[in-house]
Amino acid sequence: MTYEHLKQTDPDVYLALMGEQKRQKEGMELIASENYVSAAVIEALGSEFTNKYSEGYPGKRYYGGQEYTDIIESLAIERAKKLFHADHANVQPLSGAPANVAVYSALLEPGDTILGMDLSHGGHLTHGHPVTYMAHIYRFVRYKMKNVDTGEIDFDELRQVALKEKPKLILAGFSAYPRDLDYAKFKAIADEVGALTMMDMAHIAGLIAGKQLKNPFDFGFDVVTSTTHKSLRGPRGGMILCTEALKPKIDKAIFPGLQGGPHMNNIAAKAVTFKEALEPEFEVYAAQVIKNAKKLADEFLKAGCRLITGGTDNHLLMMDTMTSFNQTGQVIETALDHIGITLNKNMIADDPRSPMDPSGIRLGTPAITTRGMKEEDMVRVADWMVQVGKDPLNETLLKKLKEEVTQFCSQFPVPSLG
Ligand code: DSN
């Protein structure tokens, strides 16, 4: 795209965009929740579908002129259902957090109990952290890992808490947990206490779509939420997948319950994303994401670093930087920013430090895998990170590594930029 009109109309926004494009091309993106979309997704996202109001659902709208919006929303729904073996898909959620809120409001009454994973053990803010508004509406109780060095979830504790607290909903899913989940165990406990099952697969949607990780619907889960912009490699947005029985409640909770007009340009881009993810090449991509993450883990362990859960089964790694380098996550994040490697500081399990100054970092491989990096490239990535970890304030070193990273990244095209 040339952005000629943008350049003429608003040079300030144009210049910022040019800067961001350069940053994305020259730098190495290791934020576990980010990715690079295809040019086709960007075209759909930037299309005239943004002009349209479409409250309602295909065939049942409140405004006229829906012959083409109905086509794209129906396409997105059918493709999402096929991709994730779901009875029903609602593709209107604006992102992952509103999707989760919609599920709670669809299936629960205020004051009901939800059992979800502790934030510092990998859960997500929207799974009931006290700072969220939802924590004032529902009663959240938590489970944790039994063994932080293996990632094993404490299903005995989970069962005991479930028997005692009688949750209406048992929530699996995470934003900072590097292992796959035992959905059958979640489901068995939920059945025992009469709870519904929900999986927030935002981080691993692409790995499930690419048939590399287990699909919660194959274990009888009731509802699955996701973002579309992480490993699934689509536009920023959300979706809810559910059983036929829950369809009326979920659809009503999104519209008119919580949202107004769906963002149809976004839904067009979601449809394109799902088409891309149904192609056989996407399975190859998803497999490579995991191979790259495992290789990075091996390299870090060889260098004596401490990884939470001892490694990874998915796309992400959690490193305890205090134990690995005697440095906080913030120091490492800042130093890596200086050499063009982007990731985020992160709390580790039972972290004694604070969220703005935690003991670790989180990183992942979806974005660099999209650019075509393979296992041999992970050796260099890990080496740069370990060099920085050992000497994060050495400006001469950081300057030298920045040049190396920039030169290295120039060999791997960004899909929409070349
Ligand atoms: N911010 C997302 C992530 O990075 O995991 C989750 O909301």
Question: Explain this structure to me?
Answer:
The protein is of the alpha/beta class and 418 residues long. It folds into 2 domains: 235 residues, Aspartate Aminotransferase, domain 2; 128 residues, Aspartate Aminotransferase, domain 1 (Alpha-Beta Complex). 46% of the residues lie in helices and 15% in strands. The protein has 17 helices and 17 strands. A 7-stranded mixed beta sheet has the order 4-12-11-10-9-5-6, with helices on both faces. A 4-stranded antiparallel beta sheet has the order 13-14-17-16. A hairpin with an 8-residue loop joins strand 13 and strand 14. Helix 4 runs parallel beside helix 11, helix 5 crosses helix 10 and helix 7 runs parallel beside helix 8. It is globular. It starts with a helix and ends in a 9-residue tail after the last helix. The model has no long low-confidence stretch (mean pLDDT 97). Bound molecules: D-serine. The site of D-serine (DSN) has 3 residues, from loops.
In spatial order, strands of the major sheet run 4-12-11-10-9-5-6
Q: How many DSSP helices?
A: 17
Number of domains: 2
Identify the CATH homologous superfamily of the largest domain.
Type I PLP-dependent aspartate aminotransferase-like (Major domain)
The percent range for helix content is 40-55%
Number of beta-strand segments: 17
CATH topology of the largest domain: Aspartate Aminotransferase, domain 2
The whole-number mean of residue pLDDT values reads: 97
Rg for CA atoms: 22 Å
Spatial gap, N to C terminus = 11 Å
How much of the sequence lies in strands comes to 5-15%
